[in-house]
Design a protein that fits this description.
Radius of gyration: 29 Å
Distance between the termini: 76 Å
Oligomer: single chain
Largest sheet: 5 strands, mixed
Shape: elongated
Strand content: 25-35%
Number of strands: 13
Length: 329
């Protein structure tokens, strides 16, 4: 009988230990869930800080404008962040911006408090996380990224030959002025010798998939003055891709054709290189995509040109094109 009693006691001890062990394991599992959630929020907060710093650096010529722009971008990306630039103890989250015109840098720090759900079992109630990003605004001649796969010439190639279907090699003076409506890309039947106004960059080929990516996202490399672009032959009519680009940020009015009301961030506003007859980059231009038809013709309005005179450039918003903004330490 004594031996049987000892066995029962041992069994009871095992059950107690097992229960305690299960409680601890469940607690750690719950804690892991909250930690995972914190990691996701931290990543999103870093993306918000990065975007805000880049946007603010575009306006570094005026420190107040740079700070306001950075804050607005942060709040637009995360509505729970406070617009207050100095306070740092809001439970919902804050964004703090330091703009320095002298160093051409904008530093953004986003802070949020994460309230744990499961980790409270182990006595952990919350955690404050933060993400910091610094962007610097450098001179645009060091390179422009995000270019779309079209190019403008300082002169138009003159058409000649049978039915006007071959290039003569002559170039005609052509002046792009603010608001000018022009054909950005020829469509079906408009090009000659297979050239329709499409270009590629660097060592890229000219296939349709690269063309689509460069329309949607812009070229991911930097293009500098005196670099060369490549002819990308063929019509490559991707009307749906261009239409998707134009509607990403919403139209500026009911029919989406009012270039004069376009603001920074409008997806219809894109940057393209300006080239000479040798396909060498001589500058950069900002244009507003007005329409694309079923044949692939793209119509646009001209907004800005880095080859304009200083007086012309000062009279118009430069869309940040006279600078190169990048994240830094």
């Amino acid at each position: 009988m004594k031996k049987l009693k000892e066995t029962k006691n041992e069994s009871g001890q095992v059950l107690v230990l097992a229960a305690l062990l299960m409680t601890v394991l469940m607690g750690f599992a719950a804690f892991a869930v909250d930690i995972g959630m914190t990691t996701v929020v931290k990543s999103k907060l870093q993306n918000t800080a990065d975007a805000a710093a880049l946007a603010g650096a575009m306006e570094i010529s005026d420190e107040d404008d740079a700070e306001e722009t950075a804050v607005n971008y942060a709040v637009a990306n995360d509505s729970k962040l406070s617009k207050d630039k100095t306070e740092a103890d809001f439970d919902s989250g804050t964004v703090k911006v330091i703009a320095n015109k002298g160093t051409k840098k904008v530093e953004v720090t986003c802070t949020k408090k994460i309230n744990y759900t499961f980790a409270k079992i182990l006595g952990f109630n919350d955690r404050t996380i933060s993400a910091t990003a610094t962007a610097v605004n450098e001179n645009y001649t060091s390179g422009v990224s995000g270019l779309r796969p079209w190019a403008l010439t300082d002169k138009y190639k003159e058409m000649g030959g049978k039915n006007g279907k071959t290039w003569t090699g002559n170039w005609l003076d052509y002046s792009y002025t603010y608001g000018l409506e022009f054909t950005l890309k020829e469509g079906g039947g408009g090009g000659s010798n297979g050239y329709y106004g499409i270009v590629s960059f660097g060592s890229q080929g000219g296939d349709a998939n690269i063309y689509k990516d460069n329309i949607t996202y812009g070229y991911n490399g930097n293009v500098k003055i005196n670099d060369y672009v490549n002819d990308a032959n063929g019509n490559k009519n991707v009307k749906n891709v261009i239409e998707n680009l134009m509607t990403q940020s919403g139209d500026t009015n009911s029919d989406g054709t009012d270039y004069s009301n376009a603001k920074k961030g409008n997806s219809r506003v894109v940057t393209v290189p300006k080239i000479n007859s040798d396909l060498k980059v001589i500058g950069f231009a900002v244009i507003y995509i007005k329409s694309v038809d079923n044949q692939g013709y793209i119509t646009a309005n001209f907004l800005y040109d880095t080859t304009w005179s200083d007086a012309d450039k000062e009279a118009h918003y430069d869309w940040g094109l006279n600078s190169n903004v990048r994240l830094t330490n």
